[in-house]
Amino acid sequence: MAENSRYKQMKRQSVKWLLYFSAAVAIAVAVVFFRQGFSAKAFEPAPSQVAMKYYRQAQQDSRSHDLNSMLHNYYLFLRYAQDNPQTYGKELVTAYIDIGNLFVAHSDFSSAVGYYRKSYDLSQRYATGKEQMMCLLGLCQTSLYTGDTINARQWNRKILALNDVPEHEKLHLYYLNLASDHMLLNRLDSAKYYYQTDLRLIERHHIAPEEKYNTLMSLCKCYTTQNRLDSALHYALQSYDNSVYGDVGPLRRLFSMRKIAQLYMLKGDSKRAAYYQSQCYDLRDSVENTRDFLAIKSEQEQFEREQSRASIEQLTESNSRMQRLILLGVAAVALLAGFAYYVWRQKRRTEMNYRALFERNKELLDIEQAYKQRLRQANRTDQTAAEPAEETPQPRALPESDTPPRELDEALWQRILTIMDNLDELCSPEFGLIRLTALAESNTTYVSQTVKAATGKNVPAFINEYRIREACRRLLDNDQYGNLTLQALGESVGFTSQSTFNRAFKQSTGLTPAIYRRLSNRQSGEHSENDSGQ
Fold this sequence. Notes:
Blueprint: H1 2-39, H2 48-63, H3 67-81, H4 85-105, H5 109-126, H6 129-145, H7 149-160, H8 167-184, H9 188-205, H10 209-225, H11 229-245, H12 250-267, H13 270-287, H14 290-384, H15 410-420, H16 423-426, H17 433-440, H18 444-455, H19 459-476, H20 478-481, H21 486-492, H22 498-509, H23 513-533
């Protein structure tokens, strides 16, 4: 019993410390994720009002042809919006197209291709066919500028495959890209044919002036390559008029004036060449402003590098944090495994103690049964002997609990013991001091004193001890009493309360009735296996 109490106390202490450790682990994990949530930028919501403010400003700059300011505001918009395409998908497509067009104007085709690809990927999910067509046009034109005719033809075929775009607009872009392809292959006559076909299509369907400007400039380039300067100048002047009256932007007007100045110089008309060249210088300072463009581009590249460095540092910190969490988890698992092993070991030790107590109680029952058999046999011999010729051997002395003191009436003690062997009386719920006194033909005071002197116990405890012995016998007899519940078995030996039965049983044997039955059933099963094995 002391061992069980000590084990329960240790178990309670272990569970308490395990709960403390689990709480500490939970708090540590919560703190880590709390800090991660407030330190990682990925968890911060994009401020939509600020993002749309930069986008609208960039659109206004585009309409007023302030291209460097447009680029700057687009870059500020991307810092807030590029990680949230579900909200800003259509605006991102437009921003990437405009940025790509500006990089083409500055002959930075590799950067332009990157922005066009981003816009095309997003346009397939968040934009219309018109915007997809503009993305494909940019990809096709930059491929032609870099001499990549294979990809240019691939993008051109995708333009024709678009569904929700008017047929004449698809044909216009198809002719334009096909002519550019032929011109790249130095098939100038075929190129001129497709450019002129495209020009007629533009005039018939009143396609946007900037598209007409692109075709006119392409025809000018084609005639310049053939050294037909008059025809080239004719289309260059038309492109200039288109840029002025069609409001296609000062950048296109600048390109037209440069081309006109170049053609007049080739024709030997230096006066007119100087006029258009001076106009180019005036317009270039306000429109092209390459220095500001490069400064804005460098600032954005620096920002992207810092973002990449921050992402790498964040990933590194996340990895180290994850490693700490893993180590913490391993420590927790090791602690749990150690606690589980400790509980298993204590349970095994307790089971062994239970088994030893069970075997000891069973052994005491066997000794008591053997003693009673010898005692009955000796009594029968005394009664049948005519005269004792010689002194009969005395039976083995009673156990300490059954041996009366020398000053007591041994005859009364023997009558009490005989009554206690009567199971019908013992197992009756009404059996107690009054009934025992009546059957012993004595009085309650003397019976109580006799039991106290003989066993050191009062009469109820003495009766309960005999009932518990009988309950142990019945728990060992599975054939006859195995179908009884523990409450029914307690009632069969005279107990009226389940709690009283359990308390008396554990006080007498050191085991609960449930554990005693389990060990008895296990022993019976082991014996059955041994018998079947033999």
